[in-house]
Design brief:
mainly alpha; three-stranded antiparallel beta sheet; 137 residues; 5 helices
Length: 137
């Protein structure tokens, strides 16, 4: 469990998203991926910087991985995002800039921190509808 205050988001029935920070101020997360990312990164910058260091960079460093290694290990994640969800990267880059984190490192963090994907040759999971498989199952 992470300590500290990070904004939480609630999807409202009208389709907009609101976030509340440590002072319970509401921030509307609407607009372009860049606008949403900027708002999120501004609200959570300190926590984002701490978490990247504590849960990504430091453990990787202890195992001999540099930040450049982490960025290189995320290349496939970034390539997939560029192909199917480029707006994720636009939002992620805006989060990074607002949080004062290098965008390439933030991309690596969101692509590789979970399940410690940076640490080995394990891949991330994918789902394919049966209509698109060789044998239809």
């Amino acid at each position: 469990m992470y300590e500290g205050t990070i904004a939480w988001a609630v999807v409202l029935t009208a389709g907009c998203v609101m976030a509340c920070g440590e002072n319970d101020e509401a921030v509307r997360l609407t607009g372009s991926p860049r606008a949403i990312g900027t708002a999120w990164g501004t609200l959570n910058g300190a926590v984002i910087r701490r978490d990247i260091q504590e849960h990504f960079v430091a453990p990787a460093s202890e195992k001999g991985f540099s930040e450049a290694d982490l960025i290189a290990r995320a290349e496939r994640f970034v390539a997939i995002c560029l192909e199917i969800t480029p707006h994720w990267l636009e939002e992620a880059d805006a989060i990074a800039r607002a949080a004062e984190v290098a965008p390439a490192l933030y991309r690596a963090y969101i692509g590789c921190v979970y399940r410690s994907l940076w640490a080995g040759d394990e891949c991330t999971s994918y789902a394919v509808h049966k209509a698109h498989t060789r044998d239809g199952t």
